[in-house]
Amino acid sequence: MNLQEILKSLEKPVKHKIFVSYHHKLDQAYYDAFSKQFHDTHEAIHDASLDNEIDSDDTEYVLRRIREEYITGTSCTIVLIGAETYQRKYIDWEIKATLDKEHALLGIYLPSAPRNGVNITVPIRLADNVRSGYAVFTSWENATASPASLDKYISEAKGKYKSLIDNSRDKKKRNG
């Protein structure tokens, strides 16, 4: 074995640093399963329930904190989409902060995601970016099939043109 091969064998695999946005009350079990499955291959950062973490009514301050403390340093935001995800203002704000930073955006719909016929109800800002071609959208089953599967979706999201970002909507003012 030559020196280059020895050094390569000593390298640790790079962990993708991702931010995971989800409805804490209803989808915590999915986040826990996701985190457990991918903890060796991905460094997952979640928002620790912003309702409790950031005590302020100043939306610009909250958005700045989201950008600085949660989104900065990550390359992709993953939105876990469950039964009430589309109604949550902080999830909208986390998506907005992600798009402000021009980071990748991946929506993963959970088995509990509400359906309207064949369509899945998702946060509107995420829907805007799926329509524009910027955000990647897949099922829980596909994304969690293996670390390689999740990596494929993250890589696809990271490869999207920034010009496709649609962050034109006003911020969601309240839940519901």
Automatic annotation (TrEMBL):
Residues 19-113 form the Thoeris protein ThsB TIR-like domain. It comes from the Bacteria. Transmembrane segments: none annotated. InterPro entries: ThsB__TIR-like_domain, ThsB_TIR-like_sf. Pfam families: ThsB_TIR. This is Thoeris protein ThsB TIR-like domain-containing protein.
